[in-house]
Amino acid sequence: MSMRTVVRHQQWTLRPDQEPDAEPVSYAMRCAVCGEVSPAYTDFTASQDWVFAHGGRHPSHHTYREIITRPWKAWWKP
After folding, report:
1. What percent of the chain has pLDDT over 70?
2. Which residues of the chain fall below pLDDT 70?
3. 3-state SS of the chain?
């Protein structure tokens, strides 16, 4: 018995998933000094509040990285 592979090139499209059942975009922040990461929030202002609280506990921590998780959808056009 032999195996056969079929490769077919398709035109694909990629865009942010905005379907009603798509998971929400979430925002988190990572402290670049100590590496601590905030929880993921669907409201960006909540991640900013985490930065201010973290900075209040660690006055020398001034640098942060934003982590955005955005669902994407890919499909091919027949």
Report:
1. 96
2. 1, 6-7
3. CCCCCCCCCCEEEEEECCCCCCCCCEEEEEECCCCCECCCECCHHHHHHHHHHHHHHCCCCCCEEEEEECCEEEEEEC
Sign of CA dihedral 63, 41, 44, 49: negative
Is the four-CA dihedral 31, 32, 35, 40 of positive or negative sign?
positive
- The answer to whether 58 and 31 have CB atoms below 8 angstroms apart is yes
CA pair distance 54, 47, nearest whole angstrom:
11
Bridge pairing between strands 72-77 and 26-31: unpaired
What is the structure's pLDDT at 76? 84
